[in-house]
Amino acid sequence: MNYLDPGQIDVLAPNFKRRLSGVTATVVRLVPLQAHQIAIAAVAPALPDHVPQISRVRLLTMPRFGPNGPRVWHARRNSEMLAGLILKHLFRKRLKLLFTSASQRHHTGYSKWLIRQMDHVISTSEKTAGYLDRPSTVILHGIDTGEFAPPADHAALKAEMGLPPGPLVGCFGRIRAQKGTDAFVDAMIELLPDRPGAAAIVLGRATEQHQGFERGLREKVAAAGLSDRILFKPEVPVHEIARWYQALDLFIAPQRWEGFGLTPLEAMACGVPVIATTVGAFEELVIPDETGALIPPGDVSAMVEATARLLDDDAERSRQSTAARAHMEANFRIEREAEAITQVYRDLLAESVMRLG
Questions:
Q1: Do 183 and 134 belong together in one domain?
Q2: Burial (CB count within 10 angstroms: exposed 0-12, middle 13-18, buried 19+), residue 212
Q3: Cα 127 from Cα 138, distance rounded (Å)
Q4: Is the dihedral of CA 104, 21, 94, 351 positive or negative?
Q5: What's the pLDDT tens digit per position in 297-311?
Q6: Mean pLDDT, residues 180-205 taken together
Q7: Do 311 and 162 fall into the same domain?
Q8: In contact, 42 and 74? CB cutoff 8 Å
Q9: CATH number of the structural domain spanning residue 248
Q10: Nearest to 287 by CA among 298, 296, 274, 297
Q11: CB-based contacts of 18, cutoff 8 Å, min separation 6
Q12: Residue range(s) defining the domain that contains residue 263
């Protein structure tokens, strides 16, 4: 890794977790794009080489000021907010502190205190903003609509991947109760026997504490005689996930709780209508009867009804497929997200320069 010189950086984007997470994915997606607009670098223990980065060790020895005055420190976790405060007040680094909040739950007293110390806050949805005790700028996540796009030949892709040729319904992500994987499986067990051409995919993995949960789902599917039609596929690398969306005809996001939730965006960008629960930012992403449907979390009957409506009407599914892709291109391009966040950086940097002057 060739680290950048922190003396030449105006914005620092920390990511302190080693394992893959939503924050990691966000930093990996956004920082390379933003680097074309502003001098930004990630600060992380392990990120792909194409992401501009500085060494964590250099945080303590970097110049107090950036090349154009105080730097922006863009935190996305409590630990990163705390680190920014330590750098600013203990090590006397001149920083403007920015926090992005994705949580849709009431914050602890400690989190509230940290958030109060920030110079500015971004929320990833209107619902998220409602959990904050201070104003924020709402910037929804975006998607790379070049990578996530409809396939050139849907049928050929299914054949190439060894997937059933009929309508295919997918549920992607971690396998656990919070993600609603059991609701998806229950709905498919009810739906598929009357629709012999259709099949379903559960794509993802269960962490150690949820492996018993996954075994129970597989046993339930086997007991229903549907092991050849409700397929459990292992988690795939990030660079391979787009083709799995492209193979689908319908995507279901059955979560019982979610912070934001990128999977509906990724599916719709690939021209796949989405049935999503009313959690996370899903109500701000999916347009009912236009790009899919919204249902209550944990409501298997509602999931069955919404899925049947689209599975049984090829023309309507095709119409919503086209609308879903257009919706993503018009409103959720990742370049739009990157530009909006970069504008917040510029405003903070300009404010700093004015105060110094």
A1: no
A2: exposed
A3: 10
A4: negative
A5: 999 999 999 999 999
A6: 97
A7: yes
A8: no
A9: 3.40.50.2000
A10: 274
A11: 45, 46
A12: 154-331
